[in-house]
Design a protein that fits this description.
With 375 residues, the protein is an alpha/beta fold. It has helices at residues 13-24, 47-52, 64-71, 119-122, 129-145, 157-173, 197-209, 298-316, 353-369, and strands at residues 4-9, 30-35, 40-42, 61-63, 74-76, 80-84, 89-92, 97-99, 102-105, 123-125, 149-153, 181-185, 212-215, 220-224, 227-230, 235-237, 240-243, 266-268, 280-282, 287-289, 332-335, 341-345, 348-352. The strands form seven sheets. It has a five-stranded parallel β-sheet with strand order 5-2-1-9-19, covered by helices on one side. Strands 10-17-11-12-13 form a five-stranded parallel β-sheet. The longest helix is centred in the last third of the chain and has 19 residues, at 298-316. The radius of gyration is 21 Å and the shape is globular. Bound molecules: flavin-adenine dinucleotide.
């Protein structure tokens, strides 16, 4: 029997579950390849905690090499830069061309820095995470030597959590005086507009209590070496601009021939398969479920892991695929810098130190699932 070739592009939140599931229960006659530019993938739930200093780098990253060995998959240490669905081929940045029978994409998204003048040259995106962490380490070093002004752009959960985590680390963890000016800028009339009034108020209070400046209803039109220019011409001086606004799709998808949504993400049906190309699956930020669109968030990527693993297994063995409906609303546990968090689900809000401990135990349990022995 001919081996079927499955390519997993990206070691995102859904693919780590595919690797774990294939390791736990191998699919016979399958050759699995993971294409990933990173040997370790960061877990989004722990990113703010890593920045705040609650977690080490190791605690907040999943070892893709170990997971791939467990699954009997080989790793290609590169990124995919295109696909040719007609020939069933993936094109890689290292010029390799890989043939597949089934392809699954879980390559995430990036902040749309290139949509703003000067964004690419002077802004720092929170993704790729490793580049952001390099800048963050350098920033912490610089903050020990001189007062700094840092602007974070984006009033969603990511931007708010990140600002509070940075503040916590700079002020408390390193024992520094609060010389670093931190300002959060958002074009929305309020922060976290997708959450209830109660959550917004709690997070606004947390920003104020921690001395993070907040500018709302202001659109950034340019980034340069001195900071931000807002619509209308006002300036926000900054030594470093961190970009944590919404998600943009990888540009090469526009040339892939796959059916995409209006923002350029891969449209998939309830089986997580491309609406235009059977045999190509997608999950996480890079995918939009045509009949159940959801916000681009790690929680939904995590929830798609088990149904994706099952459908890839069924597709490889020639069985009918199963339908998956994501939950309408997910519980968000939003950390506020210290070991404190705000919980949000629909209109329900609660907060406290115990919420952080709850979040911590959920996140650690998630990570423990992906620490696997080598077979
Ligand atoms: C600061 C911050 C905090 C956040 N906090 C939370 C939170 O608390 N809870 C939450 O639910 N969400 C959170 N999010 C959102 C969350 O990070 C994303 O929604 C989530 O990571 C998406 O998961 P994914 O599997 O789609 O992709 P990712 O986790 O981004 O993984 C994609 C992987 O694909 C790889 N890759 C990228 N391009 C290629 C390519 N061309 N070829 C091959 N591999 C590639 C990357 O290296 C990466 O390993 C946060 C985001 C930010 C920025």
């Amino acid at each position: 029997m001919k081996l079927k070739r499955l390519i997993l592009a990206g070691g995102g939140h859904a693919h780590v579950e595919v690797l774990r599931a294939f390791g736990a229960k191998p699919v016979p006659e399958v050759d699995v390849t993971l294409v990933t530019p990173e040997a370790d993938t960061p877990y989004s739930g722990m990113l703010p905690g890593l920045v705040a200093g609650h977690y080490s780098w190791r605690e907040s990253h999943i070892d893709l090499g170990a997971l791939a060995r467990y699954a009997g998959a080989r790793i290609k240490p590169t990124r995919i830069v295109g696909i040719n669905p007609g020939e069933r081929q993936v094109l890689c940045a290292d010029r390799r061309v890989l043939d597949y029978d089934l392809l699954s994409l879980d390559i995430g998204s990036t902040p749309p820095l290139n949509e703003i003048e000067g964004g690419d040259q002077h802004g720092v995106g929170v993704r790729p995470v490793e580049s952001f962490l390099e800048v963050w380490t350098a920033l912490c070093q610089e903050a020990r030597e001189r007062p700094l002004r840092v602007a974070v752009v984006g009033g969603g959960v990511g931007g708010v959590e990140l600002s509070l985590a940075m503040r916590h680390h700079l002020r408390l963890e390193s024992g520094l005086a609060p010389q670093t000016d931190l300002t959060l800028v958002t074009e929305g009339q309020s922060i976290v507009p997708d959450h209830s009034m109660g959550v917004r108020r709690s997070l606004q209070r947390a920003l104020a209590r921690n001395g993070v400046g907040l500018l709302t209803g202001l659109r950034v039109v340019r980034v340069d070496a001195d900071g931000l220019t807002l619509e209308g011409g006002a300036k926000v001086p900054a030594d470093c601009v961190i970009w944590a606004t919404g998600a943009a799709a990888p540009a090469w998808l526009a040339r892939s021939g796959l059916e995409l949504d209006e923002r350029g993400f891969v449209l998939v049906d309830e089986t997580l398969q491309s609406t235009s190309h059977p045999g190509i699956f997608a999950a996480g930020d890079v995918a939009t479920m045509r009949d159940h669109p959801r916000p681009k968030s790690g929680v939904y990527a995590v929830h798609q892991g088990p149904p994706l693993a099952e459908n890839l297994r069924l597709a490889l063995t020639g069985e009918s695929l199963k339908r998956f409906r994501p939950q309408r609303r997910a519980l968000a546990l939003i950390s506020t810098g210290g070991r404190h968090a705000v919980a949000s689900r629909g209109g329900i809000t609660f907060q406290g130190w115990w919420v952080w401990r709850w979040k911590n135990s959920i996140d650690r349990k998630f990570m423990a699932r992906y620490v696997v022995g080598t077979k």
